[in-house]
Design goal:
By secondary structure, the protein is mainly α. Helix content is about 45%, strand content about 0%.
Length: about 210
């Protein structure tokens, strides 16, 4: 029986035409990893990198990674015990986050989308208090990082496509709909966050704050 390797929630199947001699997606992917991560020793350079942006710049060299996928891979590497940098030292706005930012900010002026994400982080408590969201629960004491806010802007775009379709920015099509999980989710976070012992107390009814991240 054949089972899918890549799911629609986190589709990381970018490929380059130089690998078109391989018929299946997983074969292309494995060969890309073999050649460009291992044989070209990028994985060694990532392990020895001195900053998050250096990891990102190494990844963006790969023929099969665009800006956003390189950022996602950089983040995943940094969640591991091998790469360990401050998550707030680098951020890259993806396409969905850019749409969300455009729906939240009237005019960026001279500022970048990444500046907007940093502005949101710097002023989060101020605007929570201003608009009455003081009851917001973070992830067991883990404050929102730049990557979390980047993701929040992406989700904002998705929600507003349904709730306020008149705010049309670039893309209005809904690709997939959320289906509530039928069973308990076994949450597991990077051990360096030191919150996995708290996750055990959660169940599907009181895990909304986990699903946000």
């Amino acid at each position: 029986m054949k089972e899918p390797i890549f799911n629609g929630a986190y589709m990381m199947t970018g490929s380059h035409k130089k690998y078109n001699m391989y018929m299946s997606k997983h074969a292309k992917w494995l060969k890309m990893v073999e050649y460009e991560f291992l044989k070209e020793k990028r994985i060694d350079r990532i392990i020895n990198a001195k900053s998050l942006d250096e990891v990102y710049n190494i990844l963006i060299e790969c023929t099969f990674l665009g800006e956003f996928l390189a950022y996602q891979y950089m983040t995943d590497f940094n969640y591991s015990p091998v790469v360990n940098f401050d998550e707030n030292t680098f951020v890259k706005a993806g396409i969905g986050a850019i749409r969300g930012i455009k729906k939240c900010f009237i005019d960026l002026g001279k500022y970048t989308y990444e500046d907007c994400i940093r502005f949101t982080q710097d002023n989060l408590l101020k605007y929570q208090d201003l608009y009455g969201f003081n009851s917001f629960k973070n992830l067991f004491g883990r404050e929102l990082k730049l990557i979390d806010l980047q993701n929040c802007f992406c989700e904002t775009d998705k929600y507003l496509r349904v709730k306020m379709p008149e705010i049309a920015v670039d893309n209005i099509r809904i690709k997939q709909k959320f289906t509530k999980p039928k069973s308990k989710i076994d949450f597991y976070f990077p051990p360096k966050w030191k919150i996995n012992n708290k996750i055990k107390k959660c169940n599907i009814e009181n895990s909304q704050e986990l699903i946000l991240f």
